[in-house]
């Protein structure tokens, strides 16, 4: 009988512990209660819809797997990694575009994305595409602060900005679009010097955002650029184009070093999100993540189409089996993997 009592007590304690842990997870004990997002098409939920640019995705088949099955301007079949991160943090199921005319007061309180597809750290990258530079995105942050102050008052609005998770995702367009394909900056910089130039710009943007009150940053690295389907097509590479991947690794290593400097200088809670590593693991072990196709996109031929050239194209039967949605951008399924793995990497450094 005494043994049974001991077992019963142990079982009760175990159940209590499980309930406590589950309760903590259910309460989402993260400090960040809002998200502010800057960058390019990887995190643009539709700002480009309001711009005079060809770099848009507010038409089918984009958005076919979104929450209500409609195109929003996201370069994806559904949600982006920032949407999934926001859901994990208990903020919202998706992060809206700052320029969305239907943005509600409640949505503003939970955060917005200022990102613009085809933008980059280099202002020339955005200017030649007719989209928002990151300087302009930061200017919109100033407008957002004024709006938030009207909604929440000076004290609470400042706290919202200080506790918000700031995500910055850019760089790929600077290299693939600006440096290599359009051959603009390659006349001025060697690859290492251009990397340094972008890092100096990135550092300046973080300082400006920090001056406006933000203290929690996640810097997203660039993916294996040489493995993008469109790059493989245009370079006629067998497998991935090694030169671009080497540049990506070099640039990412410089992000890490500069972020460490900024953390000490500014007292930031900041982390680097190594998406290169995640892409690399998925590419090496596709079945582990449920993918059957990792070399081409789901839209059209999957080798060259993105944006306008994807408009009205037929798509694969099951996007969840594809790593890429179009010839550049990941599927919703891949973005969810990036978000899930990313949260594990950055949580302790930034979110608590």
Describe the 3D structure:
With 352 residues, the chain is of the alpha/beta class. It has one domain (30-226, 242-285, 332-351): 3-Layer(aba) Sandwich (Rossmann fold). It is built from twelve helices and seven strands. The longest helix is centred in the N-terminal third of the chain and has 25 residues, at 2-26. The protein is globular and about 55 Å long. The N and C termini lie far apart (45 Å).
Features:
352 residues, alpha/beta, Rossmann fold, five-stranded parallel beta sheet, 12 helices, 9% strand, globular
User: So what's the overall shape?
Assistant: globular
- Average pLDDT rating: 92
**Topology, number of strands:** 7
CATH architecture descriptor text: 3-Layer(aba) Sandwich
